[in-house]
Each structure stands twice: as structure tokens, then as C-alpha cells.
Amino acid sequence: MTVFEPSNPDYATEVRLRFRQQPYNLAIGAEITDVRPGQVEMVLPARADLIQHNGYFHGGLIAGLADIAGGFAGWSLVAADQGMLTIEYKLNIVAPGQGHRLRAVGDVISRGRSIIVTRIDVFGEKNGQDNLCATALQTLKVMTLPPELQGAQTAG
Amino acid sequence: MTVFEPSNPDYATEVRLRFRQQPYNLAIGAEITDVRPGQVEMVLPARADLIQHNGYFHGGLIAGLADIAGGFAGWSLVAADQGMLTIEYKLNIVAPGQGHRLRAVGDVISRGRSIIVTRIDVFGEKNGQDNLCATALQTLKVMTLPPELQGAQTAG
Amino acid sequence: MTVFEPSNPDYATEVRLRFRQQPYNLAIGAEITDVRPGQVEMVLPARADLIQHNGYFHGGLIAGLADIAGGFAGWSLVAADQGMLTIEYKLNIVAPGQGHRLRAVGDVISRGRSIIVTRIDVFGEKNGQDNLCATALQTLKVMTLPPELQGAQTAG
Amino acid sequence: MTVFEPSNPDYATEVRLRFRQQPYNLAIGAEITDVRPGQVEMVLPARADLIQHNGYFHGGLIAGLADIAGGFAGWSLVAADQGMLTIEYKLNIVAPGQGHRLRAVGDVISRGRSIIVTRIDVFGEKNGQDNLCATALQTLKVMTLPPELQGAQTAG
To answer: CA gyration radius for chain D?
Structure first.
């Protein structure tokens, strides 16, 4: 894994704050469990309304979690007045997402001035075992935050 | 657009039933508005817990809706004892998803014996205007349903 | 199809010139057959060293042709001092690429200030029939050309 | 990295034979440098007709090399009467492909009975340094070879 130098020394606080500002993240019950420069780990505990009739996590949640984990992995590297926009991603579902929770790890694999590329693996945790259920490749755009959203981390 | 012949004459009933069997679909409030052979249209009305702090639909919902619309477009073409598995998709977010609802149209563009490929466009509807917010390309696998799930449409 | 207004009135000359500047394009024998604002059509005639042992065009050529067709569709819309970089694309091979030539049509589906998204269909032409063999979704970045490459169309 | 058990004990011979049967691979000058169960490494030396006017490898070659490396990584795991079909892949170009040769490493990340998913990294080698220029995520379909193509490795 490449070692990245964050542009914002408060990157971890910033990532956690930005995460909480998105109602969808909280609505599905996602949590950030680790933030490092260029890497974010998240979990999504199972819940009755998040699963399909067969007990598997719905693909929309797997995709959403992957998108968030990759997006914040990118966000951890940019300056305090910058944020991330998802341009696109591709997701392979390789197994049903099942277990007591999903775990996603997003890693930056290329950091450009305006474009960041991440790779995300999503696992289902079941009986103490971690099974890969999806893997994604994501392209992010670095954007300058509008003034009213900058410096938000000081209010976190 | 290619014109497809459905394998199951009750394809529309089948698609609507399978859709209702997935709690996630109902939890987010998605609805099927049209089913044709190889094409499914869906909508997702805006709701406070589905949006981000800026009022846009979260990307995870756009992806989930695209995945469903494409998946059921494929499902409309297969036999009564068959179903669809999403192998993978790629989604480009081209504009924020905003407005009073999202609308997704999934179209089959290639129908093989074991692999179906679909294209999905997602629009935000705002002030009577339809704006493309995302487009996706999806690969589906045709699977034979386990016996306990077959013929389910008669019980719908 | 969206109708686009080109930024450069000489867009067609520019596209054809840029195409000829890439030795690979000429080496494989690709030709541009049509240029419109936001749309480029190309063909690649069959040749012994471009095919596999079964007589099909190799996937690398299908991908390369798709990439070029989409890239120049984007290039047709930008200013004279701008060019295109391929950020990424996803390609579905839906049938073997066979026949006396491949034909690719690239269409811009979203035009941003810095990001352009295109869709490309590739067909095999055989016995007067056009068969879809691949479809792609591509993300391009608008870049400012270095001074020594600008205004190149006047030297074409 | 997952450790895979090959279905065919002669997997390495088989992969090298299948590679040589594709005229395109030889035409561009690609070579297989390593074959392991679930992993294939390839190189593509620079050549005047393979590069663009700026001296970079053309994107079509990077894609083609990635496709081959992933495809044969999958092929290394299947039975002697089976082969690989590329269903689709997504490729991010993260830097220009430059140097005296390209090197691609394809790795199987998920092995199903009918679907295999691979990840491929492509590097440009320049002045003894290895620079990531592209990364891809690929979906392969396991197919049964037609009788006339089976057992071909004994004829290699």
C-alpha cells in the first residue's frame, strides 16, 4: 500500500464530521471505524429494513457503503477547503452480503491534483468470518468547497 | 430500441411481485411505474431521511434505484422459474440527484442465455423538468430459482 | 439525443487532425467516417494480424476503438486550446466482434466544464448486417493543451 | 492474496499455449513472464507503432494488455476443457503509460463456478522504476471449449 501524506492535519476529524452531515449515512446506521491517510473503514450493522427476503443485505446498501468508504478515503487526503464528488464507480458483487454487519475498506490508489481513484472491498461478517461480497473501483473529483461549508471541522 | 419477446407471459405480474419481496425497496419508498418486455421504469419520491445536507438524493440511493431498475428489466425477459443476479454495474453520476423524485429507466441492451446486459438512466424531476443525474451499465446473470421461490407469482 | 453546440467552429478538422497524430490509430488502420458535435463514428477494417485464431477481432482492438471514438466525440465539443484525457471506461463485450470491419459510434451524454461522459457502441459488420458487439461508458477529462500543441489544426 | 488451487495441473503450459494462439498478442509483441494459479504477469516492450505522438503507449494497448493478463489469470484456474470469455471490464488510466515496456499483473479475486472476477494493475517501467499507469476490474465467464479446441495443450 502506498503511504500518503494528508494535506489537512485534522483529516480524521474532518472525515468524521463530513460523514455525520449526510442524513442517509445515519439513516442506514453506517459508522466509521477507522480513518487513516488515504484509507477509511466503515461498518453497517444488519437491520430488518436493510435486508432482502433471503436475509441478505440489499445491493443498494453494499454500493452505498462502498461509495462512502471510497469517498471519505479520498477526502482524508485533501485540503481543509476541499471536498470530494463521486464521478463514477464500478462494483462487482462477488457473493451475497450476509452476516451481522457489512464492513467496507476504501483505499486511495491514485491521488492526482483533480482526480482521485480508490478501490473498495466490502465484506460480510458472519460467525467471526470475513467474506468478500463486493469490490469496487471509484473515481472522485476534488472540488473546492463553497465558503459556507469550509472550516466546518472547527464546529464538529 | 430492440424489441424483446418475454419468456414468461406473466412477466409484468412477476416483476411487480419480486419487487415487493425485497424489504429494502419498500423501505426506501421505491415504486414500479411501468413494466415492458426488457424495460422497467421506477420512481423514488424524495423523503427527509433519503437526502444529504444539501437536499440532494444520496448516491447510494441513485445506485440502488439504478440496480433495481436494470435488474427487473432483465427479469422481465426470463422464464417463470428464473431470476436475476447482479454481477456488476458501473454508474456515472453526471449531476446531483435533486427534485421531488428520482425516476429510473432500465433497458436490456443484450440478452444472452446466461448473461443479460442493461443500461439505466436516472433522472431527477424538478419543476416539471427531467434532468439526467446518472447513467449505468449493468451485467446480470440468469439463475434458476430454487423450487420454493418458483411459481411465486400465483401467490402474489 | 442531446444536441450540442461545439466550442470550436473547426471541430471536425481538429478531430481529424488529432486522430492522425496518434501512430497507433494509423497502425491498426482505424478511420474516422463521421464527425458531428458530440458524436464521432469510426471504422476498423479486418486484417490478418488484428484477429484471433477464431477469426474474431481481438478485445483489445474493440476496446481501443471504443476509447478513441468516445474520446474524439468529447474532443469535438471543446475549445481549440483544449484536449481530452481518458480517465476511465467500462466496456461490455456482448458478442464476438466479427465481419469485414468494426464500426464504433461515440456519443457525448454529459458535458461538464471539466468532465465529459460518453457512451460508445461497437458493431461488427457482416454480410450487410450490423451486430452490436460491445458497449462502453467512458469518463473524459478536459485538459488545456500545452502551448506547443495548440493551434495544431492550422498546420494539419 | 488468496491462494488458489488450479483445476488443471498443466495450467501454466495451457495458458502459454492459449496466449500464442491469438495473433493479436504476437502482433503487438506481448509476452507472458510469469504464470501462477490465479495470477499472470505480462510485458509489452515499447515499439514505434505502439506509441502516440508524445511517446506514451496508446490506451488501447494498455486496455488490451490488462484484458489479456486478467483473462489468463482466470484461465490458469479452470479445467483443461474450459476457457475464458471476457464479459466486461473497467479500466482507470491513472498516469501515462511510458517507459521501455509495460508490465501487467492480473490477479483472480473471486472464483465462482461460472464467473471469475480479476483485478489487473498495469505499470510503465522507466529508468528501473515501476509506475502504476492503469488499474482494472474484470468479469470473466467460464465456458466449455468446443471439442476441436480441447486438449490443445498437448499439441503446443
So the answer is: 15
